[in-house]
Amino acid sequence: MASTFHGLETARRSLFTTQSALNTTGHNISNANTAGYSRQVVNMTASRPIDAVGFSKSTAAGQLGTGVEASSITRIREKFLDNQYRNEYKSLGNFSVQLDTLSKLEGIVNEPSDTGLRTVISNFWNSWSDLSKNPENADGRKVVMEQTMALVDSFNYTAKQLSDLKADLTENVEINLNTVNSITTSIAQLNGEIRRVESLGDNANDLRDQRDLITDQLSGLINIRVEDQESGYRITMGGTELVQGTATASLDSAAITTAVANGDLNSGAIYGTIYARDHYVDGYIGELNNLVQTMANGEFEVTLPKGSVLPEGTVLNNVTYTGTNRTLNEDTKVTVKGLNGLHQLGYSLAGQEAGLPFFTDANGSTAGLNAGNITLNPAIVANSNLIATSMRVATNADGSESVISGNNSLAVLFSQMRDTRFDFDAGTGENKNTVDAYFRSVVGQLGVQAAEATRMQSNQQIIVDQVESRRQSVSGVSLDEEMSNMIKFQHAYNAAARNMTMIDEILDRVINGMGRVGL
C-alpha cells in the first residue's frame, strides 16, 4: 500500500529533477559562446516503482510509480567528429605556416617591382654599357662603382633578411615546443582530475570540455593520435608517447629533429615551420648564393676581340699567354671564370696595371663568396680608376707598355654579360643561363610555390570549417533550442509545484479536517 505521503515525495522528485534541468539549461545558455563547450542534458528516468507485496496477487494496484529522477548529466559529443577535426586541423597548421613563410619570402624578393634585385642587376649592366661609350670618363667609372655597390648591398640585405627569417622560424619552433609541453602537462593534470571526479560516479563534463579544447589546440601543432582509456587520454605522436594518464614526456629540439627524420612528426604547425625553414628559406638562400658565386667566379664562354693584349701570365683554356703571344691575332673564344676572371683580362688607368678581381669579401678574398659577404673589391672602392675597361696596350720606345685608355673592349664585354649564359651548376654544363633568366626562374618558382600553398591552405580551411560546423551542429549550444527547453522545464516545474500544493491541501484535510464531525 502506498504511503500517505507518497504523492508528496513524487512531487518533490519532480521539482528537484526539473530544477536540475532548468539549472543545466541556464548553464548551457551561459556558455553559448565559450570555446570548446559542449551542451549538456539532464537524463531523466522514472524512479523505481512500488511493488504490491504479497504471496498472491493483491487487489491493490501494483507497480505504483514514484516519479522521476535525474540519473545523470551528460554532454553531447561525437568522438568521430573530434578525431576527424584533429586529423584535418594538423594539416591546416602545416599549410598555414608554409603559406605564411612563402608570403614573407615574396616580400623579401619583392619581384616584379621597380625597386627589387632584378632592377639593381639591370642598372649594373647599364652602367657598364654607359662606360663603354666613354671609357676615359672618370664619372662613368664612379657610376659603375656606385651601381656595383648598390648591387652588392642588395645581395647583402636580401641575405640578411633571409637569415633573419630562418632565425625567426627556428625561434618559432622553440616557442611552439614550449606550448606543446605546456599543453601535454595540462592534459595529464586534467586526466587526473577527471578520473578523481568520475570515480565518485559523476560525469566531469566541463573538465572533459577543457581537455578536448586543448587537445584540439595540440593537434594544430603536431600530428597526434588520441585514445580515451580508463586512466584518461593517451596521446601519441607517431611512435612517441606524449601523455599516458598523469605521466608526460617533454619534447625538445633534438627529439623533434629525430621525430622528423623517422617520420613520427609529419604534420602540424611545428612540422610546417621546420619544412618551410629547411626547404623554402634554405633553398632560396642557396639559390641566391649560387647566383652570387656564379656571377663572381662561375664559368662562361666569351669571345675576345682580335688585337686584344692579355696581361702577362694569363691562363685561358689551359694556354698560358706570355711574351709576344699575349696579342690575339684573331677573335678567340675562351672560358672565363666569372666577372672576376673577365675583369682581370683588362687594364685599369691606375698605374696601367692589369685588372683586379672585381668582387671579393671584406678582406679582399674571392674564395667562398656568397650573398652575405660579397662586396666590391675594397681597392676599387678606394680608387675607381682601378676599374679596367681597356684590352689594348701600346709599346713605348724604351720597350715599356702603356694602356690605351680610350679602348673600350673590356667595358663592351662587361655590358654584353647581360645576355651571356653562365654555368650555374658548377661546371656540369647542365644549367647554363643568363643571370637575369636564372633570377627570373627563381622568382617564378617562388610564385608557383606560393600559389600552390595558397590553394592547399584554402582547401584545408574549407574542410576544417565543414568538420567544425558538423561538430557544432551536434555539440554546440542553440539559444533558440535552450529557450524552448527553458519554457518546457519551467512549465513542468510549475506543474510539479502545483501538484505539491494539491497534495499539501489533501494532507491538510486528512490531518486537520478528518475526525472532527459533530464537534
What is the topology?
Elements: H1 6-30, E1 40-46, E2 68-75, H2 79-109, H3 117-133, H4 138-198, H5 205-221, E3 225-229, E4 232-237, E5 240-244, E6 247-248, H6 253-262, H7 268-297, E7 299-304, E8 314-316, E9 319-321, E10 332-337, H8 338-343, E11 359-360, E12 375-376, H9 378-382, E13 393-395, E14 401-403, H10 409-415, E15 422-423, E16 432-433, H11 435-475, H12 479-513
Antiparallel strand pairs: 1-2, 3-4, 4-5, 5-6, 7-10, 8-9, 11-12, 13-14, 15-16
Question: In words, what does this structure look like?
Answer:
This protein has 519 residues and is an alpha+beta fold. It has 12 helices and 16 strands. Strands 3-4-5-6 form a 4-stranded antiparallel β-sheet, covered by helices on one side. A two-stranded antiparallel sheet has the order 1-2. A two-stranded antiparallel sheet has the order 7-10. Strand 3 (225-229) and strand 4 form a beta hairpin. Helix 2 (79-109) packs antiparallel against helix 4 and helix 2 (79-109) packs parallel to helix 5 (205-221). It is rod-shaped. It starts with 5 loop residues before the first helix and ends in a 6-residue tail after the last helix. The relative contact order is 0.13. The mean pLDDT is 91.
